[in-house]
Design brief:
The chain contains 1 helix and 18 strands. Helices cover 2% and strands 64% of the residues. The chain is elongated and about 90 Å long. Strands 1-2-3-4-5-6-7-8-9-12-13-14-15-16-17-18 form a 16-stranded antiparallel β-barrel. The protein has a two-stranded antiparallel sheet with strand order 10-11. Strand 4 and strand 5 form a beta hairpin. It has a single domain, classed as monomeric porin ompg (Porin). The chain has 385 residues and is mainly beta.
Length: 385
Amino acid sequence: MKNKIALAPLLMPVMPLAGAEAFKFDTSYQVYDEADGRIQVESRYFRGEMYLGDKTTFRFQILNDAISGATPGGALPGGTQPFLSELEDLRVGVLGALSQQFGDHTVELELSRSRESDYLSEGVALSDKWELNQKNTTLTIGFNYLADEIKVIGIDNQKKKSYDFVFGVSQLLDKNTVLAATLTAGYASGYLNDQYKFIQRDEILSIDDGAGGTIDIPLTEIYRENRPDSRVRGVLQVQLTHYFEKIHAALDITERVAQDDYGVFSQSLQIEWRQGFGGHLEVTPFFRYYQQTAADFYHQTLNEVSLGKPENYPTGKGPNYSADYRLSSMETLSFGIKTKLRLGEHFSLTAAFENYAMNGVGSRQAPEQMYPTASIWTFGGTIQF
């Protein structure tokens, strides 16, 4: 039984650390780069974990994002309205979490704050991890709360609140295999629109011709999207991890399904193979597939919606509409490789590359020009004592 317990936390890394560390710090730099001059995001992460005692741990994260480029605003490509909208912003996020062990329970309180030029998000999370059955079974319950404030040009700042309830169970099936499942129920209310997303409609402008008649001029106008002012969602994630002792490798398979009252049903599959070489190098090729149905209120244009004059600043009341390609029927495919090189007992370097592609599927997809492809590069380093 002791053997089973000792191996359980080592199933994730192929090259486990020996002993406990008093301090761990890592930093990484990531570039997300969409093709054709679309969005580019440069991210810098600083993370640390400190053991304040045998039963107390503090961890933190600082994030800095620089976002630039252009993204589809919602108008159809090739029309009279601009297809791409320029975007430039900076985001700074901080997170701190304190965990304390009480017998078989580990309770963690997490506080977070993220700010952009037009968006402020503050959050709190509380969780309890309960180890039982000689630490072969772990139950986790948690609650997350986010309070967001959005600066919308032309009106007062808008509010959004999000609540997530999390329940998870992890079971050691044998000394080399762990099965984990997590169920999340979420609710959000308030301003759920993206103020930079629009939808177009074909209209007719009639003007006096000066001779008692009129001249009809066809126009294409754009209006702000109008998503519902509340959202309920549920997510189930199941993960199976198996460690192959003879070849010093681990296989992770993660399946995730989600449903919300927008009408979006999604599912994803991720597979990772972590291979150790000589105790110093770890190489992890991975594959991820995601697919979703369209939201009930997704439309390419407002021509498909029976509606009078749209509001300048929609409040979420029906009828709802959005041309955001992220709410269409689509799929994404990602594949890549991650590496980790151990340089002595206390230092390691990491590097990763991922290729990401999104495509429309089915009859309710967006125009193909809206879907991005991207390359993601990540470089990092870790020091621990």
